[in-house]
Amino acid sequence: MESPPKLSPLPPLEPLAAPEKSGNPTWREGYKTDPASFDEMFTPEHALRPHWKSFVEHLDAMGPQELARRWENGQRLIHENGVTYNIYGDPRGMDRPWELDSIPLMISAQDWSALEPALIQRAQLLNLLLTDLYGPQALLRAGLIPPELIFSHPGFLRPCHGIRPPHQSYLSLYSADITRLPDGRWSVLGDRTQSPSGAGYALENRLVLSRIFPEVFKQCHVQRLALYFRKMRETMTALAPHNRDNPLIVLLTPGPYNETYFEHAYLARYLNYTLVEGGDLTVRDQCVYLKTLGGLHRVDVILRRLDDEFCDTLELRHDSTLGVPGLVQAVRAGNVAVANPLGSGLVETPALNAFLPALCKHLLNEDLKLQSVPTYWLGRAESMAYACAHFESMVFKPTFPSPKFEPVFGAKLSREERERLLAKITLQPHLYVAQERLALATVPAFVDAHIQPRHGVLRTYLVATDRTYAAMPGGLTQIPGASDSLVFSLQRGGGSKDTWVQASGPVSQFSLLPPANQPIGLSRAGSDLPSRVADNLFWLGRYVERAESAVRLLRGIVVRLSEKSVLGEVRELPYLIRALRKQRHGATEIVTQESELPPQDELRYILDLSHSSNGLQATLQSLQDVARMVRDRLSTDTWRVIRSLADDVALPVHSSQLHLNEVLASLNYMVITLASFGGLASESMTRGQVWRFMDMGRRLERAVNVSSLLRSTFTKSSKEEPLLLEAMLEICDSFMTYRRRYLASLQIAPVLDLLLVDESNPRSLAFQLVALNDHVDNLPRDTAAPHRTQEQRITLGNLSMLRLIDIDAISKLDVNGRREVLENTLRRVDEDMASLSDTISRHYLSHAQPSRQLASFRSGSTA
Question: Residue 665: which H helix or E strand, with range?
């Protein structure tokens, strides 16, 4: 079994009834194959292919309703686990769910036994090709490759020429996009040699389908994927130039805005690697180090998901901020291994397809087993003439991959468009290739409650092993978004499928999880965080607490509006609105008590505050964004809580009819959801640095919010003070404690005692300072230093100040109707909390990324 991050349990599935001998079910009648294409499920005579028999019998037994029900469970799994593929410009942005079809692609054991060695041969060939091109370049001297294809290629990284990777493995990982020709032969549409993506999505697809079709998966004897990932881990370990017994392997990602960031985080968790961005790494003395709270840790292997040119901002691309300055130098010195090696994208050009058969014969003394789609490099006169003579059947592409040039289908061009294209090609023919347009194979897909054929392309994955390659038994099948489309792009709304390769014998039960009876060395390691991760966790805690504070304050306002008909009857409401505005904007403007607007209009005004640029909705979005950056550090349940805040919570501010009960229900749900996050953090997280920095953010933010509330309500004389006392106890979730101690008598001194200095109250200011003092005492620091750190002095100073407060004295009003001592105390807390945030950022987090701005923060600080 695979061993991914834990998924939520599904309800038990009902046992299937015996397959019905229906002969010709309805769904099969509507499945219309294209005679010009190879269909994976049916023969040209519409007979079911033998290896599909078991699966189709189960489909027949299920019926469309049961299939749809199970697929709803599958979609729920995808949604709850936050499986996303980010599409630039999509309205759903970074929350676009991963598109998975419920019908897998079935490949027989016989077909796979012929395909696997052909893929291995192709990977070996491309590896030898890269070895020569970045080494002696004998193939260029022999005229087997035109020099224009190499020296004009932007992917030929001259700083990397002469660098020899460990074991001469230029292709630690290799991927090929393949399809079937009409006669059933496999053909390669494209090679992926830089940092092949999709293996993590293939694993996720397998997990979902094996959960919704457990009995079908077992009876179809599907080969499992865990062995491939074990070999991948073994290969990465073997690449380490030093410390091979326990190398530090990191997965380098462009960051959370990359379209496949979910996969990066998912693979990092599954393979137990540290997920890093370029800013997490630094080069010192030609070695790469990971910046952590405890210091620099030497990195042995970098599994990169970053394109070649972005990996080193010093030698490769100066305008990029994604890479690691000096990485090429460290690689050249042999102090770190990169998989795949820098420059391996050189052989992704489709123009090489025209030369691979001859190269295979020269390098391997074998015929090429897996042919490419017929390709003509237009830098040759004879190829140019052939492409022009067969223009209608050609697809024109750039020689060197470019996002600015879309494939052009000759048959779809008008006469004027054809002439313009040919004129453009004639100017620089070596920059273009022509490929024959193929009738791509079709695969079954579940569309609109029916199974229909869709064109499909299979992305296969291979990993280098000892002098050969091992292929993943399956891969990621891609289908277009429309039935007549030939564009296999997930960025353009395409979907994916799981790929089931049947075993010829018993199915391996290997799992990346160790057997239950295998002894495991005890360890409590894993608490040393990369500084960027600590920064994001710190802000995750702050945003969670900021959201909860805003929601509780909003709820207190809405509850009071719902009890009265006009604003003037809620005498404490202007002060609560002032607190809300001050919390979000630092403003002092309030609504006058003489307002006679209906409660719905006052509520709309208040909700508009929550939708401002610094309001509740913006806070929730920031919470989502920062949580995504530490996705690999959060449990599945914690992630589901965060997702539910975006999915299930919406304040109806733009509704034409506002109903107080609906708004109140939404706010109540938010309080419960945010409280569940706190519960998970408190009860489920080990007390390491992950928990510490997140909780430190929460405590600091809660201290700021409690101080702000008290300053907004009790520092000046007010005839509405009894009402404000009740409101503050309610908003700070301390009303029951107060009633138990003092019954129904509301006075300022006991309220301030409970909310300000009572260290047993989790909502009090003193409680937050006690927790912060403990956290900063346990931060990594030089224990030999004789003096306290700046952050220790701040927290201990504030805590001592509160412990020495005379509650009766600060509760009394002076001759000006003010509580000046209370005002000064709370002002100092505000200033010191801002200073504490700055100090923590400067000492532990500032080198990780630019500081975030707390918009209109009370004291104008940054953190």
Answer: helix 660-684
